[in-house]
Specification:
Helix content is 26%, strand content 36%. The chain has 400 residues and is α+β, with helices and mostly antiparallel strands. Helix 5 packs antiparallel against helix 6 (167-193).
């Protein structure tokens, strides 16, 4: 029996070499930064590691690598709260006024335009007003009556001295003179209320005719004409038609929005800043009032900030950023903003140095932010040390 040729022995399947592990950019950077710290740690003995590095959360860092990490000692400190909010610009209502028509009639001429600077008493518009003519006529009559009554009263006094009239007649003449002078003064005030110029009044007192019996609307204050509401030919109604708005733009109001959580921080007298942006310097201001009412549309309380307005950079209804610095300082534990990281659930945490030199994550509750510092409401104690710079590097090492 012929023996079958022997089969070659089954060869074991060739195993493919394990693919090289790719390093993400962050891992590569960390590996370069570590400079082979893990390999060096395994190759070197424990004694070498103990003398060359300090362990942080199981990660050994060389003295060179520690230069990339900075620590901050947590301590209690005073800080000044700054409320960062939005505001709307308005005219300083203590230096702005709406000019109403002092008499009725059609507008015959406009003498100013929006943007013009005016002085107190300057003519703004002319109106063909029967009220004006009636007031002038009334003053003429009252003026003549007062002069006549005073002359008769003076004559009665002289006659009484010579027994020419009775005392009763003389007293009645004096009473009539006083009454007529009171009517004259009332008629004069009516002319002034209609903004009749001093030259016209002087002409009436001298008995001279008034060249043109037209009314003149005059500026009650000095400032800038910021609104014009009438046109030539428009019929004005005394005391109700708005003609112009004049405001002193050298100072403006900013209505800042303060929400419930921050209302207790803002008090009248607190310094503030109005931020203009575009590289312009902030305008200093002062909180003058805090409203006692909540705006139902926004749920905010309005704090009024008064600020100087050089070069008229603040415009009515402009939206601006407002920084209100609370005069009363706060107190708490402060850490640099750079020390605070976020976990996958977006919860804030810091790396705290433990007694053995290792790092541990510590979730914290953030309070008020003061510039580049956070006030920590809970999670830390005074005297602890946290990583203020290099926390991302420590986080990467902790994930390895």
């Amino acid at each position: 029996m012929n023996s079958s040729p022997s089969r070659p022995a089954a060869q074991a399947p060739r195993q493919r070499p394990a693919p090289a592990r790719r390093l993400c950019p962050l891992a590569l950077a960390a590996a370069l930064l570590l400079g082979g710290c893990t390999a060096g740690r395994n190759a070197a003995g424990p004694a070498a590691s103990a003398t060359a590095a300090v362990a942080y959360g199981g990660v050994t860092l060389s003295q060179a690598q520690r230069k990339h990490i900075k620590l901050h000692k947590v301590s209690e400190a005073d800080f000044r709260r700054t409320l960062d909010t939005a505001g709307t610009v308005d005219y300083d209502q203590d230096q702005a006024t709406e000019v109403l028509a002092p008499f009725s009639g059609p507008v015959t001429q406009l003498l100013v335009s929006v943007g013009d600077q005016v002085t107190a008493g300057q003519a703004l518009a002319r109106v063909d007003s029967s009220d004006f003519a009636t007031a002038i006529a009334a003053y003429r009559k009252a003026l003549a009556s007062a002069r006549t009554a005073r002359r008769l009263a003076d004559q009665a006094r002289e006659l009484l001295a010579h027994k020419g009239v009775s005392r009763r007649e003389e007293e009645q003449a004096q009473t009539s003179a006083v009454s007529a002078e009171a009517d004259r003064d009332a008629a004069l005030q009516a002319l002034k209320a209609l903004q009749v110029g001093a030259a016209v009044i002087s002409a009436i007192q001298r008995g001279q005719p008034v060249p043109h019996a037209s009314g003149v609307i005059r500026a009650p204050i000095a400032g800038t004409v910021v609104a014009k509401s009438i046109t030539p030919g428009q019929l004005l109604q005394a005391g109700s038609t708005s003609c112009f708005t004049i405001a002193d733009l050298s100072r403006m109001w900013v209505h800042a929005q303060v929400f419930a959580a921050d209302v207790a921080l803002v008090q009248p007298g607190d310094p503030a800043e109005v931020e203009l942006g575009n590289g312009q310097a902030n305008l200093p201001g002062t909180v003058t009032t805090v409203s006692a009412m909540v705006d139902p549309a926004t749920g905010a309380v309005t704090a009024r900030v008064v600020a100087d307005n050089p070069h008229d950079v603040l415009k009515k209804d402009m939206y601006v950023r407002v920084l209100i610095h609370a005069a009363q300082p706060g107190h708490g534990l402060l850490v640099p903003v750079s020390a605070v990281l976020r976990d996958d659930d977006n919860r804030p945490f810091v790396y705290v140095v433990q007694a053995d030199g290792s790092f541990a994550r510590r979730h914290v509750s953030l309070g008020y932010r003061d510039g580049d510092r956070y006030a920590i409401a809970s999670g830390l104690k005074a005297g602890q040390r946290v990583v203020s710079e290099g926390g991302i590097f420590v986080r990467f090492m902790q994930s390895q």
